[in-house]
Fold:
Amino acid sequence: MSLATPQTSETDLIMHELVGKGSFGAVFKGIDQRTNQVVAIKIIDLEKAQDDIDDIQKEILILSQCDSPFITKYHGSYLKDSKLCIVMEFLGGGSALDLMKAGPFEETHIAIILRDVLKGLDYLHDELKLHRDIKAANIMLSENGDVKLADFGVAGQLSASISKRNTFTGTPFWMAPEVINRSSYDFKADIWSLGITAIELAKGRPPNAAVNPMKVLKMIVDSNPPQLDGEFGKPFKAFVDICLNKDPQHRQSAKELLRHAFIKKAKRNYLLVDLIDRYSKWKSESAENVTTNYEDATLSTVSSLPDWNMTLREEDEVCEVIKPDGPEDVDGIRNCLNSILGGLKDDNAEVRGAFEAAEGACPGFIDIFVRKLVGKLQPTIGDRKLNQILGHIKTGR
Structure:
Protein backbone atom coordinates (compact mmCIF):
# COMPACT_ATOMS: atom_id res chain seq x y z
CA MET A 1 0.00 0.00 0.00
CA SER A 2 1.73 3.14 -1.22
CA LEU A 3 0.52 6.56 -0.11
CA ALA A 4 2.08 9.94 -0.77
CA THR A 5 1.08 11.87 2.35
CA PRO A 6 2.41 14.62 4.60
CA GLN A 7 5.02 13.35 7.06
CA THR A 8 3.23 12.21 10.22
CA SER A 9 4.39 9.64 12.76
CA GLU A 10 3.04 8.03 15.91
CA THR A 11 5.44 10.05 18.07
CA ASP A 12 3.82 13.27 16.83
CA LEU A 13 0.49 12.33 18.40
CA ILE A 14 -1.09 11.84 21.80
CA MET A 15 -4.12 9.56 21.54
CA HIS A 16 -7.17 10.23 23.72
CA GLU A 17 -10.72 8.87 23.83
CA LEU A 18 -12.67 6.91 21.25
CA VAL A 19 -15.27 9.21 19.71
CA GLY A 20 -16.98 7.13 17.03
CA LYS A 21 -16.90 4.85 14.05
CA GLY A 22 -16.12 5.90 10.52
CA SER A 23 -16.57 4.14 7.21
CA PHE A 24 -13.61 1.83 7.82
CA GLY A 25 -12.63 1.92 11.50
CA ALA A 26 -12.58 3.55 14.89
CA VAL A 27 -12.02 7.29 15.32
CA PHE A 28 -10.12 8.74 18.28
CA LYS A 29 -9.58 12.26 19.51
CA GLY A 30 -5.94 13.22 19.87
CA ILE A 31 -3.35 16.00 20.00
CA ASP A 32 -0.72 16.76 17.36
CA GLN A 33 2.24 17.67 19.56
CA ARG A 34 3.95 19.61 16.75
CA THR A 35 1.15 22.18 16.62
CA ASN A 36 -0.73 21.43 19.86
CA GLN A 37 -3.79 21.08 17.61
CA VAL A 38 -6.71 18.77 18.40
CA VAL A 39 -7.06 16.16 15.65
CA ALA A 40 -9.18 13.15 14.75
CA ILE A 41 -7.28 9.89 14.25
CA LYS A 42 -9.02 7.18 12.25
CA ILE A 43 -7.46 3.76 12.91
CA ILE A 44 -8.00 1.00 10.36
CA ASP A 45 -6.91 -2.63 10.71
CA LEU A 46 -5.73 -3.39 7.18
CA GLU A 47 -5.79 -7.14 7.82
CA LYS A 48 -9.54 -6.91 8.46
CA ALA A 49 -10.15 -4.39 5.68
CA GLN A 50 -8.55 -6.15 2.72
CA ASP A 51 -11.63 -5.63 0.56
CA ASP A 52 -11.70 -1.92 1.41
CA ILE A 53 -8.08 -0.93 0.78
CA ASP A 54 -8.87 0.64 -2.59
CA ASP A 55 -11.58 2.79 -0.98
CA ILE A 56 -9.24 3.75 1.87
CA GLN A 57 -6.58 4.85 -0.60
CA LYS A 58 -9.21 6.74 -2.57
CA GLU A 59 -10.40 8.61 0.53
CA ILE A 60 -6.85 9.61 1.45
CA LEU A 61 -6.05 10.68 -2.10
CA ILE A 62 -9.21 12.78 -2.46
CA LEU A 63 -8.78 14.45 0.94
CA SER A 64 -5.10 15.17 0.33
CA GLN A 65 -6.02 16.95 -2.91
CA CYS A 66 -8.72 19.13 -1.34
CA ASP A 67 -8.15 22.60 0.06
CA SER A 68 -11.47 24.13 1.04
CA PRO A 69 -12.92 25.43 4.32
CA PHE A 70 -15.99 23.30 3.54
CA ILE A 71 -14.10 19.98 3.26
CA THR A 72 -12.64 18.07 6.22
CA LYS A 73 -8.90 18.82 6.31
CA TYR A 74 -6.42 15.96 5.97
CA HIS A 75 -3.19 16.22 8.01
CA GLY A 76 -1.37 13.00 7.12
CA SER A 77 -1.21 9.27 7.78
CA TYR A 78 1.19 6.58 8.98
CA LEU A 79 1.39 2.81 9.38
CA LYS A 80 1.81 1.01 12.70
CA ASP A 81 2.10 -2.75 12.20
CA SER A 82 -1.11 -3.70 10.35
CA LYS A 83 -2.90 -0.51 11.39
CA LEU A 84 -3.26 2.53 9.16
CA CYS A 85 -3.72 5.77 11.08
CA ILE A 86 -5.27 8.70 9.22
CA VAL A 87 -4.96 12.09 10.92
CA MET A 88 -7.65 14.64 10.10
CA GLU A 89 -9.21 17.82 11.34
CA PHE A 90 -11.20 17.22 14.52
CA LEU A 91 -14.79 18.39 14.23
CA GLY A 92 -16.13 18.39 17.76
CA GLY A 93 -19.67 19.49 16.95
CA GLY A 94 -20.61 16.06 15.62
CA SER A 95 -22.46 15.15 12.44
CA ALA A 96 -25.78 16.62 11.36
CA LEU A 97 -27.23 13.16 11.97
CA ASP A 98 -25.97 13.28 15.56
CA LEU A 99 -27.46 16.71 16.15
CA MET A 100 -30.90 15.60 14.93
CA LYS A 101 -31.08 13.03 17.74
CA ALA A 102 -31.76 15.86 20.19
CA GLY A 103 -34.71 17.17 18.17
CA PRO A 104 -35.74 18.58 14.79
CA PHE A 105 -33.97 21.46 13.06
CA GLU A 106 -35.58 24.77 12.23
CA GLU A 107 -35.49 26.07 8.65
CA THR A 108 -32.96 28.68 9.76
CA HIS A 109 -30.50 25.95 10.74
CA ILE A 110 -31.19 23.87 7.63
CA ALA A 111 -30.52 26.81 5.31
CA ILE A 112 -27.11 27.40 6.91
CA ILE A 113 -26.12 23.74 6.64
CA LEU A 114 -27.29 23.38 3.03
CA ARG A 115 -25.53 26.60 2.01
CA ASP A 116 -22.19 25.35 3.29
CA VAL A 117 -22.69 21.87 1.82
CA LEU A 118 -23.38 23.54 -1.53
CA LYS A 119 -20.15 25.52 -1.17
CA GLY A 120 -18.31 22.26 -0.53
CA LEU A 121 -19.97 20.62 -3.54
CA ASP A 122 -19.26 23.63 -5.72
CA TYR A 123 -15.58 23.31 -4.84
CA LEU A 124 -15.53 19.54 -5.46
CA HIS A 125 -17.37 19.80 -8.77
CA ASP A 126 -15.02 22.55 -9.97
CA GLU A 127 -12.21 20.09 -9.18
CA LEU A 128 -14.05 17.41 -11.23
CA LYS A 129 -14.76 15.37 -8.09
CA LEU A 130 -18.04 13.72 -7.06
CA HIS A 131 -18.79 13.02 -3.41
CA ARG A 132 -21.44 10.33 -4.18
CA ASP A 133 -22.55 9.88 -0.56
CA ILE A 134 -24.14 13.15 0.57
CA LYS A 135 -26.31 12.59 3.67
CA ALA A 136 -26.63 14.00 7.18
CA ALA A 137 -24.17 11.44 8.57
CA ASN A 138 -21.44 12.80 6.29
CA ILE A 139 -21.98 16.46 7.16
CA MET A 140 -19.75 17.40 10.10
CA LEU A 141 -19.72 20.49 12.30
CA SER A 142 -16.97 22.11 14.30
CA GLU A 143 -17.63 23.33 17.82
CA ASN A 144 -18.01 26.84 16.35
CA GLY A 145 -20.69 25.77 13.88
CA ASP A 146 -18.51 25.47 10.76
CA VAL A 147 -20.01 22.93 8.33
CA LYS A 148 -17.80 20.52 6.37
CA LEU A 149 -18.24 17.51 4.11
CA ALA A 150 -16.67 14.26 5.31
CA ASP A 151 -16.30 10.58 4.38
CA PHE A 152 -14.83 10.45 0.88
CA GLY A 153 -14.54 6.65 0.74
CA VAL A 154 -16.75 6.43 -2.35
CA ALA A 155 -15.90 9.77 -3.97
CA GLY A 156 -15.32 9.71 -7.71
CA GLN A 157 -12.93 11.55 -10.00
CA LEU A 158 -13.85 12.82 -13.44
CA SER A 159 -11.48 14.23 -16.03
CA ALA A 160 -11.56 16.35 -19.14
CA SER A 161 -11.99 13.17 -21.20
CA ILE A 162 -14.31 11.32 -18.78
CA SER A 163 -17.23 13.58 -17.89
CA LYS A 164 -19.61 10.92 -16.53
CA ARG A 165 -19.47 7.74 -14.45
CA ASN A 166 -21.68 4.66 -14.34
CA THR A 167 -20.72 2.79 -11.17
CA PHE A 168 -23.34 1.84 -8.58
CA THR A 169 -22.23 3.73 -5.48
CA GLY A 170 -23.90 5.53 -2.57
CA THR A 171 -26.45 4.88 0.18
CA PRO A 172 -29.80 3.52 -1.11
CA PHE A 173 -32.19 6.14 0.33
CA TRP A 174 -30.08 9.01 -1.04
CA MET A 175 -29.14 7.56 -4.43
CA ALA A 176 -30.14 9.33 -7.65
CA PRO A 177 -32.29 7.43 -10.18
CA GLU A 178 -29.58 7.57 -12.84
CA VAL A 179 -27.07 5.97 -10.45
CA ILE A 180 -29.45 3.10 -9.66
CA ASN A 181 -30.17 2.62 -13.38
CA ARG A 182 -26.44 2.44 -14.09
CA SER A 183 -26.88 5.27 -16.56
CA SER A 184 -24.02 7.69 -17.08
CA TYR A 185 -24.13 10.32 -14.35
CA ASP A 186 -22.20 13.38 -13.27
CA PHE A 187 -22.27 16.08 -10.58
CA LYS A 188 -26.05 16.24 -10.69
CA ALA A 189 -26.19 12.93 -8.76
CA ASP A 190 -24.79 14.80 -5.75
CA ILE A 191 -27.55 17.40 -6.14
CA TRP A 192 -30.26 14.70 -5.93
CA SER A 193 -28.63 13.36 -2.75
CA LEU A 194 -28.59 16.90 -1.38
CA GLY A 195 -32.35 17.18 -1.98
CA ILE A 196 -32.94 13.94 -0.07
CA THR A 197 -30.65 15.24 2.67
CA ALA A 198 -32.70 18.45 2.85
CA ILE A 199 -35.80 16.34 3.58
CA GLU A 200 -33.78 14.28 6.07
CA LEU A 201 -32.75 17.44 7.93
CA ALA A 202 -36.35 18.70 7.97
CA LYS A 203 -38.03 15.43 8.93
CA GLY A 204 -35.33 13.62 10.88
CA ARG A 205 -34.99 10.83 8.33
CA PRO A 206 -34.97 10.39 4.54
CA PRO A 207 -38.11 9.57 2.51
CA ASN A 208 -39.25 5.93 2.72
CA ALA A 209 -37.01 5.31 5.73
CA ALA A 210 -39.34 2.57 6.99
CA VAL A 211 -39.07 0.62 3.72
CA ASN A 212 -36.42 -2.04 3.11
CA PRO A 213 -33.42 -0.31 1.46
CA MET A 214 -33.33 -2.69 -1.49
CA LYS A 215 -37.01 -2.10 -2.19
CA VAL A 216 -36.38 1.65 -2.02
CA LEU A 217 -33.99 1.37 -4.98
CA LYS A 218 -36.86 0.27 -7.21
CA MET A 219 -39.19 2.92 -5.76
CA ILE A 220 -36.71 5.71 -6.52
CA VAL A 221 -36.60 4.67 -10.17
CA ASP A 222 -40.31 3.92 -10.68
CA SER A 223 -42.07 6.49 -8.48
CA ASN A 224 -42.45 10.26 -8.62
CA PRO A 225 -39.71 12.13 -6.75
CA PRO A 226 -40.29 12.78 -3.04
CA GLN A 227 -41.62 16.15 -1.95
CA LEU A 228 -41.19 18.12 1.24
CA ASP A 229 -44.63 18.18 2.80
CA GLY A 230 -45.71 19.85 6.02
CA GLU A 231 -45.52 23.39 7.33
CA PHE A 232 -42.36 24.54 5.62
CA GLY A 233 -41.84 27.72 3.65
CA LYS A 234 -42.39 27.86 -0.11
CA PRO A 235 -38.74 28.73 -0.88
CA PHE A 236 -37.56 25.63 1.03
CA LYS A 237 -40.06 23.38 -0.76
CA ALA A 238 -39.11 24.87 -4.12
CA PHE A 239 -35.42 24.26 -3.38
CA VAL A 240 -36.11 20.58 -2.68
CA ASP A 241 -38.18 20.23 -5.86
CA ILE A 242 -35.34 21.61 -7.97
CA CYS A 243 -32.85 19.16 -6.43
CA LEU A 244 -35.19 16.19 -6.92
CA ASN A 245 -35.96 16.54 -10.61
CA LYS A 246 -35.63 13.00 -12.01
CA ASP A 247 -34.08 14.39 -15.19
CA PRO A 248 -30.53 15.37 -14.17
CA GLN A 249 -30.34 17.83 -17.06
CA HIS A 250 -33.05 19.88 -15.35
CA ARG A 251 -31.39 19.85 -11.93
CA GLN A 252 -29.46 22.98 -11.14
CA SER A 253 -25.76 22.90 -10.34
CA ALA A 254 -24.35 23.69 -6.90
CA LYS A 255 -23.25 27.09 -8.18
CA GLU A 256 -26.78 27.87 -9.40
CA LEU A 257 -28.41 26.61 -6.19
CA LEU A 258 -26.23 28.94 -4.12
CA ARG A 259 -28.24 31.75 -5.73
CA HIS A 260 -31.60 30.20 -4.76
CA ALA A 261 -33.83 32.35 -2.52
CA PHE A 262 -33.85 29.77 0.29
CA ILE A 263 -30.06 29.60 0.38
CA LYS A 264 -29.45 33.32 -0.03
CA LYS A 265 -31.41 34.02 3.17
CA ALA A 266 -29.17 31.69 5.22
CA LYS A 267 -27.75 33.35 8.33
CA ARG A 268 -24.34 33.10 10.00
CA ASN A 269 -22.92 29.85 11.32
CA TYR A 270 -22.82 30.84 14.99
CA LEU A 271 -26.54 30.01 15.16
CA LEU A 272 -25.63 26.32 14.75
CA VAL A 273 -23.84 26.39 18.10
CA ASP A 274 -27.29 26.22 19.73
CA LEU A 275 -27.82 22.84 18.04
CA ILE A 276 -24.42 21.63 19.22
CA ASP A 277 -25.09 22.72 22.80
CA ARG A 278 -28.53 21.08 22.71
CA TYR A 279 -27.02 17.82 21.46
CA SER A 280 -24.26 17.89 24.11
CA LYS A 281 -26.87 18.26 26.83
CA TRP A 282 -29.00 15.49 25.33
CA LYS A 283 -25.99 13.16 25.03
CA SER A 284 -24.91 13.76 28.62
CA GLU A 285 -28.36 12.65 29.75
CA SER A 286 -28.51 9.58 27.51
CA ALA A 287 -26.81 6.21 27.24
CA GLU A 288 -24.97 7.35 24.10
CA ASN A 289 -22.36 9.21 26.12
CA VAL A 290 -19.64 6.61 25.39
CA THR A 291 -15.95 7.41 25.90
CA THR A 292 -13.20 4.82 25.75
CA ASN A 293 -9.45 5.33 26.10
CA TYR A 294 -7.30 4.25 23.16
CA GLU A 295 -5.45 1.66 25.25
CA ASP A 296 -8.73 0.13 26.46
CA ALA A 297 -10.53 0.07 23.11
CA THR A 298 -11.56 -3.38 21.91
CA LEU A 299 -13.54 -4.70 18.99
CA SER A 300 -16.58 -5.07 21.25
CA THR A 301 -16.49 -1.45 22.42
CA VAL A 302 -16.04 -0.17 18.89
CA SER A 303 -18.90 -2.32 17.62
CA SER A 304 -21.22 -1.05 20.33
CA LEU A 305 -20.97 2.55 19.15
CA PRO A 306 -23.70 3.96 16.90
CA ASP A 307 -22.87 2.95 13.31
CA TRP A 308 -23.03 5.34 10.38
CA ASN A 309 -25.47 4.72 7.56
CA MET A 310 -24.65 1.77 5.30
CA THR A 311 -23.00 2.82 2.05
CA LEU A 312 -22.86 0.65 -1.06
CA ARG A 313 -19.38 0.96 -2.50
CA GLU A 314 -18.03 0.63 -5.99
CA GLU A 315 -17.16 -3.06 -5.64
CA ASP A 316 -20.75 -3.83 -4.56
CA GLU A 317 -21.91 -4.09 -8.17
CA VAL A 318 -25.43 -5.17 -7.26
CA CYS A 319 -26.80 -4.43 -10.73
CA GLU A 320 -24.21 -6.53 -12.53
CA VAL A 321 -24.00 -10.32 -12.41
CA ILE A 322 -20.48 -11.32 -11.34
CA LYS A 323 -19.16 -14.38 -13.16
CA PRO A 324 -18.55 -17.25 -10.70
CA ASP A 325 -15.35 -19.22 -10.29
CA GLY A 326 -17.24 -22.27 -11.52
CA PRO A 327 -20.80 -23.27 -12.45
CA GLU A 328 -21.43 -25.02 -9.14
CA ASP A 329 -20.42 -21.90 -7.20
CA VAL A 330 -23.37 -19.69 -8.16
CA ASP A 331 -25.85 -22.55 -8.08
CA GLY A 332 -24.78 -23.41 -4.54
CA ILE A 333 -25.02 -19.82 -3.37
CA ARG A 334 -28.40 -19.27 -4.99
CA ASN A 335 -29.73 -22.55 -3.58
CA CYS A 336 -28.56 -21.57 -0.10
CA LEU A 337 -30.42 -18.27 -0.14
CA ASN A 338 -33.48 -19.72 -1.86
CA SER A 339 -33.60 -22.29 0.94
CA ILE A 340 -33.56 -19.49 3.51
CA LEU A 341 -36.18 -17.43 1.69
CA GLY A 342 -38.35 -20.44 1.02
CA GLY A 343 -38.46 -21.22 4.72
CA LEU A 344 -39.67 -17.80 5.79
CA LYS A 345 -43.02 -17.71 7.54
CA ASP A 346 -45.91 -15.54 6.38
CA ASP A 347 -45.02 -12.84 8.89
CA ASN A 348 -41.67 -12.48 7.12
CA ALA A 349 -43.20 -12.11 3.67
CA GLU A 350 -42.02 -8.51 3.48
CA VAL A 351 -38.40 -9.62 3.91
CA ARG A 352 -38.78 -12.25 1.21
CA GLY A 353 -40.50 -9.71 -1.03
CA ALA A 354 -37.68 -7.22 -0.51
CA PHE A 355 -35.08 -9.76 -1.63
CA GLU A 356 -37.17 -10.69 -4.64
CA ALA A 357 -37.69 -7.02 -5.55
CA ALA A 358 -33.96 -6.33 -5.26
CA GLU A 359 -33.15 -9.32 -7.47
CA GLY A 360 -35.73 -8.19 -9.99
CA ALA A 361 -34.40 -4.64 -10.10
CA CYS A 362 -30.73 -5.67 -10.03
CA PRO A 363 -30.16 -9.22 -11.35
CA GLY A 364 -27.31 -10.84 -9.47
CA PHE A 365 -27.99 -9.07 -6.18
CA ILE A 366 -28.75 -12.31 -4.28
CA ASP A 367 -25.51 -13.94 -5.41
CA ILE A 368 -23.44 -10.94 -4.36
CA PHE A 369 -25.31 -10.57 -1.06
CA VAL A 370 -24.45 -14.13 -0.04
CA ARG A 371 -20.86 -13.80 -1.25
CA LYS A 372 -20.45 -10.71 0.92
CA LEU A 373 -22.10 -12.45 3.89
CA VAL A 374 -19.85 -15.49 3.54
CA GLY A 375 -16.80 -13.25 3.16
CA LYS A 376 -17.62 -11.41 6.38
CA LEU A 377 -18.37 -14.58 8.36
CA GLN A 378 -15.37 -16.62 7.25
CA PRO A 379 -12.61 -14.74 9.13
CA THR A 380 -14.70 -14.74 12.30
CA ILE A 381 -15.96 -18.30 12.58
CA GLY A 382 -13.55 -20.23 10.34
CA ASP A 383 -14.03 -22.49 7.33
CA ARG A 384 -15.17 -25.55 9.27
CA LYS A 385 -17.99 -23.82 11.16
CA LEU A 386 -19.03 -21.91 8.04
CA ASN A 387 -19.28 -25.12 6.02
CA GLN A 388 -21.42 -26.64 8.78
CA ILE A 389 -23.80 -23.67 8.65
CA LEU A 390 -24.03 -23.79 4.86
CA GLY A 391 -24.62 -27.53 5.07
CA HIS A 392 -27.53 -27.00 7.46
CA ILE A 393 -29.00 -24.38 5.14
CA LYS A 394 -28.75 -26.62 2.09
CA THR A 395 -30.40 -29.53 3.85
CA GLY A 396 -33.08 -27.29 5.36
CA ARG A 397 -32.10 -28.19 8.94
User: Anything to note?
Assistant: The chain has a mean pLDDT of 77. The chain has three domains: 10-90, 94-281, 327-395. The chain has 14 helices and eleven strands. The CA atoms of residues 196 and 262 lie 16 Å apart.
